[in-house]
Amino acid sequence: MNKMEVPAEKLSSCSTCSVRRFALYKDIPLDSLSWLQGMRSGQYRLSPKQSLYTEGNLSREVFTLFSGMALVFRILPEGKRQILRILLPGDFLGFQVDLDQPMDHSVIAASECVFCVFPKENIRRMIREIPELTMRMMELQSESVIDCHDWIASIGQKTAIQRVAQLFLMVYLRIRERGAVQDSSVIFPLTQHDIADAVGVTPVHVSRVASELRKEQIADCKQGRLYVYNLQQLADIASVKLDNTTGVYRWR
Amino acid sequence: MNKMEVPAEKLSSCSTCSVRRFALYKDIPLDSLSWLQGMRSGQYRLSPKQSLYTEGNLSREVFTLFSGMALVFRILPEGKRQILRILLPGDFLGFQVDLDQPMDHSVIAASECVFCVFPKENIRRMIREIPELTMRMMELQSESVIDCHDWIASIGQKTAIQRVAQLFLMVYLRIRERGAVQDSSVIFPLTQHDIADAVGVTPVHVSRVASELRKEQIADCKQGRLYVYNLQQLADIASVKLDNTTGVYRWR
DNA sequence: CGCTCTGTTGACTTACGTCAATTTTTGTGG
DNA sequence: CCACAAAAATTGACGTAAGTCAACAGAGCG
Fold first, then answer.
1. pLDDT in tens, B40-84
2. Whether B105 and A157 lie within 8 Å, measured CB to CB
3. Among candidate residues B15, B12, B42, B39, the one with its CA nearest the CA of residue B29
4. Looking at residues A37-63, what average pLDDT do you find?
5. Least enclosed by CB within 10 Å: which of A103, A194, B150, B246?
6. CA of B164 to C1' of D17 (A)
7. Which phi and psi (to 5°) does residue B161 adopt?
8. How do A51-53 and B61-67 pair as beta strands?
């Protein structure tokens, strides 16, 4: 069996959820949280490499990643894989307006993952009943499109080292928002093969540019962690303008 | 002055609009069309190369392309341009949930264009007042994300000729849906430079792969038109699976 | 302890980029 | 409608970033 249901007594609770502020539900008032939790049908636990759902299949559920890291990807007819999105805790996935449309992508766990599960009908009900949720939903979708634009511009116009640098930067900053930086490093379970499929180069070449970044003491990724030694230089290489007007470096 | 307001007596009318079936408003009941038209603040006419709005600026308006072809793009710090979306009649653009967020992209006309203009507040009102519009809005956003996924997978994993073939195919099929095919050709005002910036290769190389497709009698693009002589072969080269279960070739 | 997965490194190939000269097409004004 | 300039496309010679192939070295795991 692919994914495991988390037993009822071990389910995490929405009211104390530390990643709710990144989730679809971030603006739901505290007194509605138990109602929200009632909408959730459960949680799935996945081990690395296990699949949540697959391209071409229907899915009756949508998800919020609760913990771990997961990959959204497609397999092309020639068998090549393109990674489309890197999922971090709080990320919402699997939503489609048309319930009977097959998924256009697959999802696998990159590390040990827990997903919160919501039947699609519940999501539709939630959207209908809570107008703010509708706006939040659109906000998330708009962000998705903007992220896609970043990704397209990176793959379309940048060199291999720039793309890898941008990927490292993006993941690092996103994890940092979640407060999970330790000694300027973050958990990073992707293999170089995964990175290669994300940025559209060969694994061998990823190895080369990664060792370049290591040699220059800018960033390193080893033993499941990503070390960023010089954020500004990493951004310069990626040719990304960091906004640090607030004292904290931000993406745009 | 960049864009020209269409004078009131020459405005096109929503009730007879031939591209409404592709637009955000496609499911609005006929008796609400004058109300819809009241939400529209006017129309802009743009000549080729003129800009509708620019990355980094705020925009108080959203748009539906009524006629012509336009390009959504970004300029990267090094001055390179990545085209992110090709706009056809009926396409909705410029929407963001947060009214004070600057645009993440720019839009220019590729041919003579007319855009329907809606103040953002009106769109928000429309969404609030017409629940079906909300769902339709999400549907459009989901489609946008799927299109982005197609685009990413193409430039991430395919060769230059495959990417160009996919672009030709996509544009051809989308225009064909709109019923604007003549002698197996469609209006196509993009230059090879535009194509290059869309698929992430050099204009010189676009010329080479285009002449390859011409030599093989598969497709040709000249004098502002795109000729598709062999749709199936074009799809094969692009490595796109066409669905012709309905007798008509469709993208997925 | 051996097996598999992941990453590294070197030699060689190739798809695509760059530069530059030339032709063709498009647009504009007389 | 033609003349002209500007823009777009083509072609060839040559350069280079990244791909391919292959051997090898650690790391993780039963």
1. 999 999 999 999 999 999 999 999 999 999 999 999 999 999 999
2. no
3. B15
4. 96
5. B246
6. 21
7. -70, -35
8. unpaired
